[in-house]
Structure formats: C-alpha cells, structure tokens
C-alpha cells in the first residue's frame, strides 16, 4: 500500500488554498471598490489625483497593495486603505479591476 507523506498532504492543501485565494472574486471586489472610487474614479479610470487601476493585472494590483501596506511604497492614503484590507480582499479587488477596461 502506497502512503502519501503527511507533509505532502499539507503542502498540497496549502497550495490549493493559495490558488483559490489567488483567483479572487470579482463580485466581492466590486462590493469593496467604493473606497477606491473616491480617488481612482468610477470604475478605476483614474483622476488627476490618482492613476488608472482598471485593467491592471491581478498580480501587479495585489503586489502594489502589499507594498503600500508594508510601507515599501510610500503614500499615506494608500497605506491607510491597504492596511484595512485582508489578502483575500486584495485578490477580490484585483479580480474586479482586472475585469475592467
């Protein structure tokens, strides 16, 4: 009888959980996007105050939010906004804005 090592099961489970999270939920992101619209404009089209975020790739979007949250990117407003987001919310917002033109 072949047995799968316990660590392989744990690693596989975590990989699946990460993949599910990485996909994001655009509908949930849309619900959270109201705060983004205050600066980035309706549907993330950008304003004189903040750049366009509609159409950003999910990876770039999540990385930018993580960089603001950690302080790697310096912007007080974005740090405050990103600090309030869970990783899942970041992926959800990324899925929503990636779906826009």
Order of helices and strands: HHHHHH
The mean pLDDT is 87
What is the CATH top level name?
Mainly Alpha
Shape: globular
Q: Give start-end ranges of low-pLDDT stretches.
A: 11-20
- The tally of beta strands, per DSSP, is 0
Keywords:
101 residues; mainly alpha; Cytochrome Bc1 Complex, Chain D, domain 2; 6 helices; 64% helix
Q: Could you walk me through the main structural features you see in this protein, from its secondary elements to its overall organization?
A:
With 101 residues, the chain is mostly helical. The chain has one domain: Cytochrome Bc1 Complex, Chain D, domain 2 (Orthogonal Bundle). It is 64% helix and 0% strand. It is built from six helices and no strands. Helix 2 crosses helix 6, helix 4 crosses helix 5 and helix 4 packs across helix 6. The radius of gyration is 16 Å and the shape is globular. About 10% of the residues have low confidence.
List the helices and strands and how they pair.
Blueprint: H1 6-23, H2 26-32, H3 34-40, H4 58-70, H5 76-83, H6 87-98
Quick synopsis:
With 101 residues, the protein is an all-alpha fold.
């Amino acid at each position: 009888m072949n047995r799968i090592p316990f660590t392989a099961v744990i690693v596989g489970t975590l990989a699946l959980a990460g993949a599910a999270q990485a996909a994001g939920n655009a509908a949930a992101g849309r619900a959270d996007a109201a705060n983004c619209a205050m600066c980035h404009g309706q549907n993330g089209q950008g304003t004189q105050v903040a750049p366009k975020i509609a159409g950003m790739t999910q990876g770039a979007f999540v990385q930018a939010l993580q960089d603001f949250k950690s302080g790697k990117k310096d912007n007080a407003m974005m740090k405050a906004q990103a600090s309030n987001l869970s990783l899942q919310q970041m992926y959800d917002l990324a899925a929503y804005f990636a779906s826009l033109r």
